[in-house]
Amino acid sequence: MFTARNKGRFALVAAAAGVSLALAGCATGDPLDETPDPTTEPAEPGTSESITVGSQAYYSNEIIAEIYAQALENVGFEVNRQFNIGQRDAYIPALESGEVDLFPEYTGNLLQYYVPDTEATQSDEVYAELQGALPDGLQVLDQSSATDQDSYNVTAEFAAENNLVTIADLAGVEGLILGGNPELEERPYGPTGLADVYGVEVSFDATGDATVDALLQGVVNVANVFSADPRIGENDLVTLEDPEGLFLASNVVPLASADLPQEAIDVINAVSAALTPEGLVAMNVQSTTDEQSPAVIATQWLTENGLI
Amino acid sequence: MTWLLDNVELIGRLTGEHLRLSAIPIVLGFVLSIPLGWVAYRYRLTRGLILTLVGLLYTIPSLALFVLLPAIIGTPFLSEANVVIALTIYAVAIMSRSVADALGSVDPDVKQAATAIGYSSFRRFWAVDFPLAGPVVLAGLRVVAVSTVSLLTIGAAIGIDTLGYLFTNGYQRGIIVSVLTGVVVTVVIALVLDRVLVVIGRALMPWTRASSRSERSGVTRAFTTARKMPEAVS
Amino acid sequence: MNLFADAFAWILNPGNWEGRNSIPQFIGEHLWYTALAMILASAIAIPLGWYIGHTGRGRDIAVATTGAARALPSFGLLFLFVMIGGVANRDSSVVIVLALLAIPPILAGAYAGFEAIDRRVIDAARSMGMTERQIVARIEIPLGLPLLWGGLRNAVLQVVATVVLVGFVRNATLGYPIVQGIQINRFDQMLGASILIIVLALLLDAIFALLERYATPAGVRVGRTRDHRTSSTRRRAAGGATPASTEKEKSV
């Protein structure tokens, strides 16, 4: 029998449950935050300030960001990680507003974000123009020799069949299907660029993250693969040469807020100097083939290079 | 397997995030749908309007709603708020109908008896109507909880990393175990949450314990009876 | 409201209605995947649901499966199946995932439709000498149609919403402008595509609502003016969940 006394108990329990659930929801993190929940690391005694390091939604970029984070922690900074932010339109404002202090980026792609019709293609040109193109409040530190740029690749068999060495050699081939991320369609080095610069006609298949598999399985015959992707070497893919400079050079470069402490800058520059193209590819292998986590990979690399 | 062993901590952290972000739509949805469902039940004229509107919201696919909300209410697109508000809307859409139907299913004789004893309308709602409507409301709440946990994973497409991160990251790196783990953990959490709600329901509404068993078997009994006695005329 | 102006400009732009990646192409692809999935799912779920509804066997498993299936994250399932099946087979993988998600609501609609029929009607039919097959074909199926259409309606909404995610694996369906828009920061195409998706979903919902109402025998329709769930108040008040098909599913 449901009496007035039971009703009170019912209401009380319901209210308590509701409040505790709501509190659990409100307790950690402001739902209006634009960026994902940070994991903070404990500060070492005598530490200076806290630095927030971000990363793109790209596993390789996350590894580099983790390297930055651990290198900074090693000298006593407190590091706030906000990884997988995703799009430039989310993290560039965060960098400008100071929510994020440091971000691993790529010179060529970043330059095209600010100057879509840039003519620079060589590594040093791109870096120089990038420095000028950044808004006040942002700076780029030393660029690394490691690159991770867009490149057109074909399988070894396809290259042999059609005598392909450069992108221009694609011009005579029939039935070309280009695979890549959805954004490639709209990029200046995408299908339109291929047609304008090299006279190559392709149809486009947005294979996204499965692009390399698509190339290997014959779903597409030309694929845009990032140059640091270990699968290029693992599968004997042929990267077509780009004499006309369709692709900009894109070196790994730290993008930072203008007021990053000098001590931090020195640490990161040391990291950039030690990062080589082969080293980056090797770390990518560890992530994909060996399935190791970014933290493990970063610690190992920093130790091997004497930075920790 | 390397991935799985290496990433137990990551899975745990993402699960925590997932629970944190699921809690708000479930609780808010429940709370907001009580007045809405009550209005739909009490005022016949508004019932059609409210339920239709709520039903329309329900048909919007989640990714489309994530895009639509910033355009209408100005939340930043790539934000937790966007995802949480969208999921709350779905929760309210499901629960309002549940609450309206639940209140409508309470035996009018019981309500009349309560009024006769001396309950005022307001007290009668909280003391009689709502508790008796409880089981149906609970059923709706269970659907909301499970749906919310499942839908939250789509937030990974706009950078809100809960268990959905295991999908996008696993797909990118070609690690099937990651995606599979994400699916399994999401389902487990949803089902556990469902069970928890059932247990809470039984604790708060002790009278439902005995009847639920007999009600379910009642239907099957009718089948078997009908099959065994083909000549019987009812 | 500038955003909406841009979105409508994108929708109405004639350049988006011809050639590659046109709106009609996306809509067509969207409907194609939906249709394939619905047909596959119905072929499996309707006969199975009718069997469960008629014989009462396997009902508990069916109810439990329907409940658990709601928990399946479609996003993850899609990637999982595409990865397992390989990129070359992504279309088949997609259709299989869509069908898997559509089966529970259709199944529930099928067996709930049979269960909702007054037992006395079945008894009367048996006493008249109708065979089991006749009972199923002439009585249970027609009387069960309204709830079956309801289940199909839930399923089609589920599928249409999941097809949006195909934009992550192919440049097809209305999901692609959204996925691409996220990467190139073009909100007009994202919002435009979202609006089109919503309109498509609402249209399909309306069509199936009409089918639920009118694609049933006239005699059945007459008896359904009252919501059957409120008729048996004692059963309600005593507890227990409502039939699975009348609960809306939302997994995408």
Task: Give a quick rundown of the structure.
Chain A has 308 residues and is α/β, with parallel strands linked by helices. Chain A has helices at 4-27, 59-74, 88-97, 107-114, 123-133, 156-162, 191-198, 211-216, 230-234, 262-274, 277-288, 294-304; strands spanning 39-40, 50-54, 78-82, 102-106, 138-140, 152-154, 177-179, 203-205, 222-224, 238-239, 252-257.
Helical content of chain C (DSSP H or I, runs of 4+)? over 70%
Rg measurement of chain A, Å: 24 Å
How large is the share of residues in beta strands of chain C? under 5%
- Tell me which protein chains meet in the greatest interface and how many residues each side has: B-C, 83 and 70 residues
Q: Roughly how many Å is the radius of gyration of chain C? A: 21 Å
* Fraction in beta strands of chain A: 5-15%
Question: What is the tally of beta strands of chain A?
Answer: 11
Task: Find the CATH superfamily of the largest domain in chain C.
Answer: MetI-like
| CATH domain topology of the largest domain in chain A | D-Maltodextrin-Binding Protein, domain 2
The largest sheet of chain C, given as strand count, sense and whether it forms a barrel, is: none
The total domain count of chain A is 2
Protein name (chain A): Putative secreted protein
Organism (chain A): Microcella alkaliphila
GO molecular function (chain A): transmembrane transporter activity
Keywords (chain A): Signal
Describe the structure.
Chain A: Residues 1-24 form the signal peptide. Chain A: Residues 50-304 form the ABC-type glycine betaine transport system substrate-binding domain. Chain A: This is Putative secreted protein. Chain A: Residues 37-47 have a biased composition (Low complexity). The complex is a heterotrimer of chains A (308), B (234) and C (252). Chain A is an alpha/beta fold. Chain A contains 12 helices and 11 strands. Chain A has helices at residues 4-27, 59-74, 88-97, 107-114, 123-133, 156-162, 191-198, 211-216, 230-234, 262-274, 277-288, 294-304, and strands spanning 39-40, 50-54, 78-82, 102-106, 138-140, 152-154, 177-179, 203-205, 222-224, 238-239, 252-257. In chain A, the strands form 3 sheets. Chain A has a 5-stranded mixed β-sheet. A 3-stranded mixed β-sheet of chain A has the order 1-3-2, with helices on one face. In chain A, helix 2 (59-74) links the parallel strand 2 and strand 3. Residues 1-6 and 20-47 of chain A have low confidence and may be disordered. Chain B has helices at 2-6, 8-42, 44-59, 62-73, 80-104, 108-117, 121-151, 165-173, 176-204, 208-228. In chain B, helix 2 (8-42) runs antiparallel to helix 3. Chain C is built from 12 helices and no strands. Chain C has helices spanning 2-12, 23-55, 59-69, 74-85, 90-115, 119-127, 132-163, 175-184, 187-214, 218-222, 228-231, 233-238. In chain C, helix 2 (23-55) crosses helix 5. Classes of the chains: A alpha/beta (308), B mainly alpha (234), C mainly alpha (252). Chains in contact: A-B, A-C, B-C. Chains B and C meet through helix 3, helix 4, helix 5, helix 7 and helix 8 of B and helix 1, helix 3, helix 4, helix 6 and helix 7 of C.
